[in-house]
Structures are given as C-alpha cells and as structure tokens.
Amino acid sequence: MFSRPHNRSTVSYVDVSVDLAQVRTLDTFHSFLEALDGELTSVYDGKLVRAAAEPILYSSFADGDAFANELSERAFNLLQEYDASHAQATELRGAYEAMMAARPVPVKPEPKFDENGEEIPPPPKSKKVLREEAEQRKRDTEQLRAVLTVEHRETCASIKLKNVFNAKVIRVPVARN
Question: Basic and acidic residues bias located where (predicted)?
Fold first, then answer.
C-alpha cells in the first residue's frame, strides 16, 4: 500500500507514495489511518507519530511537489461509494442487456392482399395483449431508469474524485514521539 523508502521526511511531515488500488480495498478511513500509523511506526521505530489534528494531503504528481487537496474521511467514503456504484452499475447494465438480448425480436407479419390487390390490415390486438405489452414496456422503462440512476451516481462520484483517482503521494503531518 505504501512504498518504501518514503519520498521525503522532515520534522513536520513525511511524504509517502501510495498505491490507491490497495487503499481502496480497505473498509473504512479508520483502517487506512491504522495502516498509515503502522507504516510510520515500523519505518521510524515509533519516533514519529501522525499528528491527528492536521489533515493528510495528497499530490497527483509522482514527485510530490504540490499538495493542495485533503485526503479526508469524506473523500475516502466517496471513493467507497464510487466503487459500490460502479459494481452495481456494471451488474445492472449487464442484467438489463442480457434481458433485452434474450427477448425475441418481433417479426412483422407479411402483408396480406385481397383479390383487388389491396393490402388487408392486420386484425387489431386484443385489450389483454395491449395491456401486457404496456406493462412490459413499463417494467423495461423502470429497469432502465434504475440502471441510468446508478450510472449517474457513479459519474457524479467520478467527477468529484477526479483528482483523488490520480493521487500518487500523500503528505502526512507528523510529530516527534
């Protein structure tokens, strides 16, 4: 999750390269903080501890020169929400497309002609058939709406997390122990 050796270490902060894919596997922000505290303890033999009062910042540049955004519990939860929305959107979209693909393609009947060569209109559909078709269209619309709602939620989270997805280095404020 954290690469060693750490990028930079000063009296007030430590810059650590981070693998966001591994961070995303953690359940809570508290677990991330525990893993980070464990990393600091193992590398610095307990001489440096994370300063809990100050925010953890991240940089989207590998060299870690510009730290403008905070990696907060809110951002972490939004990342978790994005992952859940992405999984749900993929599942719902797959189910919807499979359902539509399994449905038989409606075949338009061949036109019939009378003795004069005029086309005979097909008989009107019964009310029962029309009602069933309307109910099926309504179910299809509701399922498509559910798919689009989840995809929209995923897109919104993706826009909010644009910079977080590119996080490469975190700056952890530290204090001497």
Answer: 129-141
